[in-house]
Write a structure and sequence with these properties.
The complex is a heterodimer of chains A (428) and B (260).
Chain A lengths: L15 H43 L7 E7 L15 H12 L5 H8 L6 H11 L7 E7 L2 H7 L16 H12 L3 E2 L5 H4 L12 H32 L4 H14 L3 H15 L7 H25 L3 H9 L4 H30 L2 H5 L20 H9 L4 H34 L2
Antiparallel strand pairs in A: 1-2, 1-3
Helix pairs in contact in A: 1-16, 2-3, 2-4, 8-11, 8-13, 8-15, 9-11, 10-11, 11-13, 12-13, 13-16, 15-16
Chain B lengths: L10 E12 L2 E12 L3 E5 L6 H7 L10 E9 L2 E2 L7 H7 E4 L10 H12 L5 H14 L3 H4 L12 H13 L5 E5 L7 H14 L4 E5 L3 H7 L2 E6 L2 E7 H6 L4 H7 L5
Parallel strand pairs in B: 3-8, 3-9, 6-7, 7-8
Antiparallel strand pairs in B: 1-2, 1-4, 4-5, 9-10
Classes of the chains: A mainly alpha (428), B alpha/beta (260).
């Protein structure tokens, strides 16, 4: 056989050996597809299990057992001159006595525990707000204490022997009487969002954590967004290519990979140790989170700047635009969708970050929401950490509920990233 | 050839002993050339011969490339454009450039053309700017196609229209020289013919210098042709003479298709 191209033998595509390789190629492709689908399915299954277990344990924290009672506000217990200093424990005891006339003084201590410890303050606040109630009757809906809430939600099994149960037969009987009288209700748990943290699960809420996270993220954004974009623009558009900028570049990439707890230690040493900034403050938390978010934003911004076609730069330069005009007039607007996506993803990461906040003391027990970024506060993830650590049964459901709230915010932020991206890409 | 037009033949750009280095690569060696005003000068040559590099020396676009060094003397109307007191930003308003791939900004047609006048402050008010935009689009031979949709994005036009928009954009700063880096290589034959016609029109007002891969295009459009090979300017002269009677054997072999 000659080697000249003209006389090369034609390939016989019907050859069974060739047909077999073709079949094998198709089979490999099918296997790859199946593997891809399987891994996708596994990922979704994990996500579903996570969400389902959180929802199963958390949904109960979104409702709260309340009791609606008539509180007798006698002038004997509450002095009209000074309603704030009234004997509200006595008001509660007397009002309960009216519902359970047979209960003696000794048992009253126990009976009073049906109502949340916060009930006396709620009655007090209502009376202070409206002193004309003194001498009359106040109908108020107050939360029951955690064990009764658990009983109402079915968490306490009535069939366990009394000695192993958190509520005695008598206590259960009292609660059942209230229920039969139609005084028990389980409305949506507004306290979860309107109250700050508390020692009592039925009163604990996320208000402080939400505000703390908001202030921390605000500070984090205000610091890391302009700094990150500025650094990225300088590195990408103006920096000379030399050893110095190479070192900076490598270090930024390294910073993005540093474990967050290290940033926490750094913040503890520098912000709290040297600068004596306030402990547990959202401002310091935001600065710490900004340290972590900066590399993320710089890397995302540089990638977005790099993705702007060089032809646009050339066009503007060719018309006599200065470097700065090219960057701010053309490159930056085109890179904005990418920058915003990177920033929001960086902030979402910061929102879920726990370790650095623990180190600067944002896991303190604080029962009022912060009114500024400089007051002690907790954040959502640290609040979850605190609640997960608490022994009371009521906190278990609240931990799951708080995680769901945190996930809700994360999903919202990621959605915002997608929407902003779409919006800016369409804009001319 | 067409020397009857006013100003034609006056020397606009004169380059002496221009050397360009990209790092260690000596990309352009001893290029000396005088380019006449109100004419189309074509730079031809095989890929990598340095013709685009030389073109980009003329408006100092090479300044923006890291590691690029330009030596020698390039004068625009007798003024050294590499002198320290010359601002490249100002120079590029006087020496406009059109690129190989049409590159309108992702803005409206109006804003594309108005961009140059705006950054250089050439219009005092909106009506003056409107006037400049209309005049530039007319001279870019695209006014009739876009006058009803000046707010449409420049990128919504066809390739040939985009390139004419880019030419109109370059004209809008009233440059004296127009540099064109293979302006038709991304276009179909019909759009190419339109652009060539436009270039022929533009030479009445500008000194046009174009790089092209197509020898037929150089022969059709230009009055002067410069042939570059391996970083050197091999031959420069009247287009007709270069194509019919080249004096250098290398030019002849390129034109007849033996090299390149």
């Amino acid at each position: 056989m000659k080697d000249s191209p003209a006389s090369a033998p034609r390939v016989n595509w019907k050859d069974p050996q060739l047909a077999a390789t073709l079949r094998a190629r198709h089979a490999r492709e099918r296997r790859l597809k199946i593997l891809g689908l399987l891994s996708l399915g596994a990922a979704f299954a994990m996500l579903f299990i996570l969400l389902a277990s959180l929802a199963a344990s958390g949904y109960k924290a979104f409702v709260q057992t309340h009791v609606t009672m008539d509180f007798v506000i006698s002038a004997r217990n509450v002095n009209p001159e000074n309603p704030e200093k009234g004997k509200y424990r006595k008001v509660i005891a007397e009002s309960l006595q009216a519902v359970f006339p047979e209960v003696g003084r000794k048992e009253m201590r126990q009976l009073r525990k049906i109502l949340s410890n916060g009930a006396q303050y709620m009655v007090r606040d209502a009376v202070v707000a409206d002193p004309s109630l003194i001498g009359g009757v106040l109908r108020l809906t107050v939360p029951v204490s955690d064990p009764y809430d658990q009983l109402n939600k079915g968490e306490i099994d009535r069939t366990t022997p009394e000695s192993n149960r958190r509520l005695s037969d008598r206590e259960i009987a009292w609660f059942d009487r209230l229920k039969e009288a139609g005084m028990i209700s389980t409305p949506f748990n507004k306290a979860l969002f309107l109250n700050a943290d508390s020692r009592f699960p039925e009163l604990a809420g996320l208000k402080g954590a939400l505000w703390g996270s908001f202030y921390a993220l605000l500070v984090c954004f205000l610091l890391s967004f302009p700094l990150g974009i500025g650094a990225a623009i300088w590195l990408e558009e103006f920096a000379p290519k030399n050893r110095f900028t190479d070192i900076i570049e490598v270090n930024i990439n390294n910073l993005a990979a540093v474990p967050s707890v290290v940033f926490g230690l750094l913040a503890l040493a520098v912000f709290l140790g040297w600068f004596n900034l306030p402990r547990s403050a959202a401002f310091v938390g935001g600065m710490t989170l900004a340290l972590m978010t900066l590399p993320t934003i710089i890397i995302a911004t540089r990638a977005a700047l790099k993705a702007v076609p060089p032809s646009i730069r050339e066009a503007a330069l060719g018309l006599g635009a200065s470097r700065q005009q090219v960057v701010f007039g053309h490159v930056l607007p085109l890179a904005m969708p990418g920058i915003l996506t990177g920033t929001i993803i960086g902030l979402a990461q910061a929102l879920g970050e726990t370790a650095p906040l623990l180190l600067i003391g944002m896991n303190a027990f604080i029962t009022s929401a912060p009114e500024s970024a400089f007051e002690p506060a907790t954040a959502l993830p640290t609040q979850i950490f605190i609640w997960a650590d608490s022994p009371e049964r009521g906190f278990a459901a609240r931990t799951s509920a708080a995680i769901l709230v945190l996930l809700g915010f994360l999903i919202t932020m990621n959605l915002a990233a997608v929407i902003l991206r779409r919006k800016f890409e369409r804009k001319w | 050839m067409n020397q009857q037009e006013t100003g034609a033949g006056e020397i606009k750009i004169s380059a002496r002993d221009v050397q360009v280095h990209y790092g260690d690569n000596h990309a352009l060696v001893d290029v000396s050339v005088d380019i006449s005003d109100k004419m189309v000068t074509a730079f031809i040559g095989p890929s990598g011969c340095g013709k685009s590099t030389f073109l980009r020396c003329l408006n100092r676009m090479n300044d923006t490339i890291d590691g690029c060094r330009v030596e020698g003397d390039i004068r625009l109307d007798g003024e050294d454009i590499y002198a320290p007191e010359v601002d490249p930003v100002h120079l590029r308003a006087r020496v406009g450039m059109v690129f190989q791939k049409p590159n309108p900004f992702p803005k409206s047609i109006y804003d594309n053309v108005a961009y140059g006048p705006r950054i250089h402050g050439l219009a005092k008010n909106r009506s003056e700017l409107d006037e400049i935009v209309e005049k530039s689009l007319r001279r870019g031979a695209i006014w009739d196609e876009v006058k009803d949709r000046l707010d449409a994005p420049g990128t919504s036009l066809s390739g040939g229209q985009q390139q004419r928009l880019c030419i109109a954009r370059a004209i809008a700063t009233s440059p004296e020289v127009l540099l064109m880096d293979e302006p038709c290589s991304a276009l179909d034959p019909i759009a190419t013919a339109q652009i060539e016609e436009l270039i022929d029109e533009l030479r009445r007002q500008f000194c046009v210098i174009m790089v092209t891969h197509s020898m037929q295009q150089a022969a059709r459009v230009s009055q002067r042709t410069a042939f570059f090979h391996l970083g050197q300017l091999v031959e420069y002269g009247e287009t007709g003479q270069i194509f019919t009677n080249p004096s250098d054997p290398r030019t002849e072999s390129y034109i007849t298709g033996r090299i390149g």
